[in-house]
Task: inverse folding
């Protein structure tokens, strides 16, 4: 069995690469397996969810420890997930085995540019509509109107099914004020440079 390079080693190699890449090619490479992975996540949840329709989400995030590493997380919800930057959401139907894209939000830099831009090209119009409704506070209404359905958001879903959850054994929580964290308890022995790869 050949030893694979760790993500940290690959990141270190990539940081030293001065080659120029075509952004369009990179975009296609990033999207190559997205639909396949969305279907895997959707079908995996068929046994978990009893409902005919539910939401499959792709969330992209940078790795908090390794610079330049992007993580893709696929998961599913029974309710409309809270919108956030770098998120794509599909509605999955068990009967038809089809995915329908509901929204796709870019990173927060592009979201801000789209929101502030007075006009955008045709290919960005739909995204600008999602971004505007996100910032102006009518996101759910916009998504429901676009897709002609009445699915509930997370808070609406939890409130609507509150009694069922309590009967199933969920405890009703009351939130108290938490104690502030004492930062004087933090001690640092030494600082580690995260860009330096460790090789054993």
Result:
């Amino acid at each position: 069995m050949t030893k694979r390079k760790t993500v940290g080693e690959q990141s270190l190699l990539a940081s030293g690469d001065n080659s120029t890449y075509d952004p369009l090619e990179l975009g296609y490479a990033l999207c190559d397996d997205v639909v396949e992975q969305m279907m895997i996540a959707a079908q995996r949840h068929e046994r978990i969810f009893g409902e005919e329709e539910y939401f499959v989400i792709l969330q992209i995030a940078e790795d908090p420890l390794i610079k330049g590493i992007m993580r893709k997380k696929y998961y599913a919800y029974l309710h409309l997930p809270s919108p956030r930057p770098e998120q794509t959401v599909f509605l999955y139907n068990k009967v038809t085995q089809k995915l329908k894209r509901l929204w796709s939000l870019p990173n927060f830099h592009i979201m801000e540019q789209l929101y502030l831009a007075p006009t955008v090209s045709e290919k960005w119009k739909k995204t600008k509509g999602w971004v505007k409704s996100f910032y102006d506070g009518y996101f759910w209404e916009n998504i429901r109107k676009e897709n002609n359905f009445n699915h509930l958001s997370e808070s609406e879903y939890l409130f609507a099914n509150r009694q069922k959850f309590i009967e199933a054994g969920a405890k009703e929580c009351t939130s108290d004020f938490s104690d502030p964290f004492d930062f004087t308890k933090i001690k640092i022995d030494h600082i580690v440079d995260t860009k330096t790869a460790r090789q054993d």
Q: What stands out?
A: The radius of gyration is 21 Å. The longest helix spans residues 125-136.
